[in-house]
C-alpha cells in the first residue's frame, strides 16, 4: 500500500467534513468527484451548481453544495463574522460582502461555527489569500507561537528519510525565520511527522555548514535555533547544523558528523529560510518525480491547508486526505 493510500485508509475510519471553496477550478471539481467516489470524507463545495456543471460533467450529488448568494446560512455566518471582527471596525454589511466576494472567508466561517472540520484551497489563489481568512477567523491553536507550513514529500525508489518519506519545512509560509521561529518550526514539524507518518521524527537543521565547517551569520542563526530547540523541546530528536548530504546520507554523515544520532538518518528537513525550502521541495518534486503534498499548515486551531497553484488532481486528493487526518487529531 502506498503512503497516500494509507492516509486515505486512516481518513475513512473517522470521516470528517472538508470544504472546497474553489469550485471555479476544474481540477477541484474532478478531485471532489474522485473523493466522493472513494468515500474519503464528507465534502462541502461552495459555489453555484449550474456554474459547476458548465465547467465539468462530474456527478457531485454526494457533496453538500452551498451557494452563498442563495443559502439561508449566509445571514447567520455574516452575523458571526461581524461579531468576530467588529473590534477591527468591520460592519455587518461589510461582513456579508466579504462572504460573498471571497469564498475562503465563507469556508473558514463554516469551520468556525462547527459545520465543517477543515478547508483546502489555493489551487487558483495565493497562499496569502488562502491563509489570511484562516488567521483572522480560526486563529492559532493554544500554546502555539507560530503558524508555519510544510510539504510532505514522498520520493520514489528512495532509501533515505523514512523510506523516501520526508517533511520539508518551512517551504510555504515563513519568509525568513529568526532563530526562535526556526526552533518553533522544527518542533511543530517533528510533531506533524510523528502524527502523519506514525514514525519517530529525526529532525535536521539544514545549512551550508556542517558542525562548524563554515562561519557566517546565516550559520549562527541555525546553531542558535538548535540551542533553543534543545532547551525548549527536549522531547524531540533534533540536531544540526547539517549540509543536506550529511543529514540524509549515512556514508557522508560518518565523515562529517560521526557523533550525531540524527546525521544520515533525518526524515524531517528544516530549511533556513523560505527561499531554500521552496526551491528544495520543487527540485525534488520535479527532478526525482516525488509526490509533494502541501503546503500543509501547522499551528492553526483547525486544519486550513494550502495548495500549490501547479497542483494536480491527485495532489488535491492527497491534501484533502491529510487535512481530514489533521481534523481527526483536533
Write up this protein.
- With 330 residues, the chain is an alpha/beta fold.
- The protein contains 14 helices and eleven strands.
- The strands form two sheets. It has a six-stranded mixed β-sheet, with helices on both faces.
- The two termini are 26 Å apart.
- The model has no long low-confidence stretch (mean pLDDT 93).
Summarize this structure as a short list of keywords or feature phrases.
five-stranded parallel sheet; Rossmann fold; alpha/beta; 330 residues; single chain; six-stranded mixed sheet; 11 strands; 14 helices
What's the helix and strand layout?
Blueprint: H1 3-13, E1 17-20, H2 26-38, E2 42-46, H3 49-55, E3 64-66, H4 73-85, H5 92-101, H6 103-112, E4 118-120, H7 127-137, E5 148-154, H8 160-163, E6 165-169, H9 179-197, E7 202-206, H10 217-232, E8 237-242, H11 244-248, H12 250-256, E9 268-270, H13 274-287, E10 291-298, E11 304-305, H14 313-329
Parallel strand pairs: 1-2, 1-4, 2-3, 4-11, 6-9, 7-8, 7-9
Antiparallel strand pairs: 5-6, 5-10
Helix pairs in contact: 1-14, 2-14, 4-5, 5-6, 6-7, 9-10
